[in-house]
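--- STAGE predict ---
source: upstream dedup step, 1 unique chain passed
mode: sequence only
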Amino acid sequence: MKSFTLAFATVALSIGCASSSSLKPAAPADSAAPPVLWRDPGPMTSRDLFWGAGAPDRAPQGPFTFVEEDTTGTNPKITVTDARGSTWDMKFDEEVHAEVAANRIVWALGYIVEDQYFVPSGVVSGVRGLTRAAKFVGADGAFQKARFRWRNPAAVRTEEEWTLQRNPFAGSKELSGLYILMTMVNNWDIEGPRNNRVLRAKGPDGRAERLFLVSDLGATFGRMGGGPFSDHSKWVLDHFKQEPFIEKIDGGMVHLAHDGFDPDLDRVPLDHARWFAGLVSQLTPAQLRRAFEAAGAAPAEIDGYTAKLGEKIEQLKVAVRSSSQ
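--- STAGE serialize ---
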């Protein structure tokens, strides 16, 4: 018991320190660039959730060539180039389906994402010295079920850090909408800055912008649980169906059933929730299905996840509508 208590205290302390320590600011050369969290997606009926931010002609194209293994994070990853010379991060294991599906839905609602694709199988030439990824890439380079993320040379990854509590968007309806969205897809692993990123890129007007995104969406579509020692999961349909979404509306706030590592994402102003409900309710079941098809989901998973997300959207609509009467 003593060792468990010590371990729990150590983890709790590390999480607390991560959330309270200073964050790296924007570099001087970037600090004048305006921050962007969300863009108006325009007519929602035109959003194709199969390709998302990407496109058929930008999808990864074999043959693939090994560059290096990435040993950061919790899931095995390698870096490769494809036949067009584009560089890709490949991820394997339990987050593959979840991350692509979440990427499509986050993009559809106007939030910033990077191009991602699910590739069911392929071959990587020149593979050598693998450690964690050796379980998923054979000696001949063959692999099954990988998430490919494009390293866009025009979107430079900066050292700037942010969290969902400390950022330039505090108090905005767009940030509240992101809280709701992360709860809607059951993203429990968004504590601290390690799963968030800032990219420097040119905006539609050609001027530099700082793009703020939740860069790791793999811990989704399962059970959120209630902290670092809870029974959380990723991409488990039965667990996703069982998780609550909205707890109550009280004092002009919508209380969300967010039970992830970060304890401060569980309430948003009612008027912000009403704005997000108007946005997300424009997505059709057919569009949601496309997101899960893009992620390589099985037919039963496509049906189940689409139906449960539809229930959550309806629950949000009813909650904000009833509270205004």
